[in-house]
Structures are given as C-alpha cells and as structure tokens.
Amino acid sequence: MKKVCNAYDPTEAHIIKGVLESYGIKAEVQDDQLHNLVAGIGYTEAVIPTIWIFDDRQYDEAQGILDEYEKKKKDQTRDEVIWVCSSCQEESTEAFTECWNCGASRSP
Ligand SMILES: [Zn+2]
C-alpha cells in the first residue's frame, strides 16, 4: 500500500479512485468514514480522505495519471470563468449576470 494523494472531500476521493481504476490501478480511499464522525466538530487534517494504491510499483504511473487529472480539472475551471467584474475584479461564470461578490452588473 502506498499513498498517492489527498482529496478535498470524500466525493473527490472516490472520483480519483475511479480514475485510477480506469487505468487498471487498484486503489482504495481511506479516512472518509472518520470524516463523517467529526463533521460536527470540524475538519482536521487527520480526516482528509487519502487515496492509496495496492501495488507500490504503480506509484509513478499513478502520479502521472493524477497530474493529468489535476491539469484537466484546472482547465475546466478556467473555461467556466467567462467575465471579470469591473469594480471588484472577481471572476464570474456565464451563469451570473451580476457579480456574485459585489452585485455590479456584468460589464459589456
Ligand atoms: Zn464585483
């Protein structure tokens, strides 16, 4: 067993596990149960879900796949940003016709 990365939340952890397994790398999510147990108290680093692979020899391959996954995720985030508020410079997506941050109308 070898840890390949941390996830932001259990949902993402399971997405990453699915991505790895689609490449034939057997993976497991740990700590997501604990996540629920402490939900009322708040999150600590100890309960951030982690993704582990069973075969240590696939570690480098797994890292490569995760790099690609992160890159794709960033690209998607970038695509969603359609316009920048002229008064506060916050970025908004197409779905917003007014700035989500300060309420200014979308600039032409
Ligand atoms: Zn604004």
From TrEMBL:
InterPro entries with a match to the protein in the record: DUF2007 (IPR018551), N-reg_PII-like_a/b (IPR011322)
SUPFAM superfamilies given in the database record: GlnB-like (SSF54913)
Domain DUF2007, first and last residues per copy: 1-70
Protein name: DUF2007 domain-containing protein
Organism of this sequence: uncultured Sulfurovum sp
